[in-house]
Amino acid sequence: MQIKPRQNLLEVWQAIGRHSFDGGEWDWGEWGGRSSVADAERLLCLMYPATTIAAFRLDDPDTTQSDVEWALRNAGDSTAIPGNLVKALTHFMEQHRGEESPTFAGGYYFEPEDPKQEITKEQRETGVVDAYSMSVTLCLATLGFLKVYRAKTKRASTLAQIDRLWEATSARLTAAMVSLLRSFTVNVVNVAGDQGQALTRLLGQGRLSPRQVQQRFQERFKQLRAVISESLILGLDAEVTDELRLENRMFECGWAWSLVQNAPTVDVEEDTAAAIGKQPEGVASPVPYLYFTVVALDGIPDLFSERTLVLGLLNPEQQKLADALRLRWEITQQYWSAVARFGDGTWPLEEIPWRTTLQQLESEYFSLSVASILVHDLVRRRATDDDLTRTVNVMERLAERGRITSGMTRDDPAIGLHNPGVTLPLLGSETLGPPMKWTMTDFSAQLLKRTIQLCSLSRNIASQDRLLQLAESILDHLWQRRLSEGEGVGLWDNVHAVYPESPVRQGPLSWSITERITECMVAAHGLYDQKPVRSPDLTALSGALISEAAHLFGREQMEQPAPALKSPQGEVIKAIEADLRRARRLAGDQPGTAYALALGVLSRLDSLARARGDAGPQGR
């Protein structure tokens, strides 16, 4: 199906309106409140587009567009929708705050590794990086929404509620930022150990000896190692930075699944400390996970986006935390981008599937996670054509291996990528109860998101065309997976619809996939909002046509007496002049449009010449 971000977003909003609003009031339903991650994802399905795309704004009733209002008619009219969203957001902030501080519980997203065991209450209430990252995005969207809406309402009770929500949202944002800092980790490994050897094999790909890999690793990451050792003091164990300086060590960096064991507390000002409460003890083993690293990298850029800066959403203390997170964001991207493209020949990323170094887990999902970080880095530093072309190949192969663009075989193991999904053992969770796991079922949605991001980045016509076709195929696959019955009609996820051999899923609808598809539509809106890729060949041709058309138009005006302005011939001359002027203006950014306009001008000039019996140069 063609990517139609506006129409598709309106369909999603209409489905959310049916599901989550009852007579204008927000209805959390049976599963609401059981996971701060799911609740944040659910609200972001509305708040993220509403605060990112001008046409979907809900904070100013006077500018709410009619089709947007109609899609959310269950939430009330344009004047009622902002107030009802404030109530829902207020309830979220209250629901996910403990006696002392905001909470970021994984809730029912956590599962026991052994299905016969039951997770403890303390484990379900443990914070998770997904919740921290989602809260950063949701809180910034909420603060921006409130800043505009506050100026549009004069009701005292509403203004008081907005002020309370602002305070709670700002406190949650600070707590999420502190938690992200304390979840970042650098895992230093001995090259002679099991993990060091696994990392050596991954980077060498059988083409480089262990000694060559280690030597190149030390050279490639010398500067990055120095930056980590000297700069990452805030929220990082000092012993790690000392060990990192040793020459016989390799390392990985990124985010663990939760607060890291023995992670030092982050020093904040007295007022901030009172707002966010006591910083809890870490439980996660100090090991970076690819999945949680990608999740963190997705949320952190919102802290230094143009919208955040223009609206002034961060206070001085939060700005300090944002700077610390940005440093980790840049370091992590540089590290994994270099690892993905390590060596001179075939990239490690191109050897699908990727194998993790500590747990030795192997899956296309991990290849997609590394590719996602690479996409982040390519966007940051503007990629070369070679980097883009090779990354496009990886995306196409992942879609094929995930049976999104290729047919299934009997008992196809690729179905497991989507249902039941790829599981991650959460190291350190066993200290609070039975060992837990985290399941990722969003392979297709993540692949669509990275494909659209790459498409926005590509300025090569052939690569962009391949990416657009791939994105359309993935979207068609995902659109077929919408629920067709039950309370979540029009939302996700019915994997059984496209993979009949997969088991029918039980439990609540997937806000994770629904939110990610919403992100994809926002990204697609950004893609179509930018200028089209310019063809150098077409630019040259349009320039030549405009030049010829301008010359012939000058001859036409020279040889014919000036027509009356309101005569038919005068109207034709005016239209030719307007089209020629527009063609010249568009030639730089839209050479194809300029080409078409110039052709039209030439055609009309030829008609004028034939009308007076002018056969051109040969007839003179």
Question: Can you give keywords for this protein?
Answer:
single chain, 620 residues, mainly alpha, three-stranded antiparallel β-sheet, two-stranded antiparallel sheet, 23 helices, 6% strand
Write up this protein.
With 620 residues, the protein is mainly alpha-helical. The chain contains 23 helices and 9 strands. The strands form 4 sheets. The protein has a 3-stranded antiparallel sheet, with no helix packed on it. Helix 21 (536-559) runs parallel beside helix 23 (591-611).
Secondary structure elements and pairings:
Layout: H1 5-20, E1 21-22, E2 25-26, H2 36-52, H3 66-71, H4 81-95, E3 110-112, H5 121-124, H6 129-150, H7 156-183, E4 184-190, H8 194-204, H9 210-220, H10 222-231, H11 238-244, E5 249-255, H12 270-276, H13 290-299, H14 306-311, H15 316-340, E6 354-355, E7 362-363, H16 364-381, H17 385-401, E8 422-426, E9 436-440, H18 443-457, H19 461-479, H20 511-529, H21 536-559, H22 568-586, H23 591-611
Antiparallel strand pairs: 1-2, 3-9, 4-5, 6-7, 8-9
Helix pairs in contact: 1-20, 2-6, 2-20, 4-7, 6-7, 6-13, 7-15, 8-9, 10-11, 13-16, 15-16, 16-17, 16-18, 17-18, 17-19, 18-19, 18-20, 21-22, 21-23, 22-23
Low-confidence stretches: none
- Multimer state: single chain
Q: Could you give the count of β-strands?
A: 9
Strand order of the largest sheet: 3-9-8
Helix content: 55-70%
Task: Briefly note the structural class of the backbone.
Answer: mainly alpha
* Helical run tally: 23
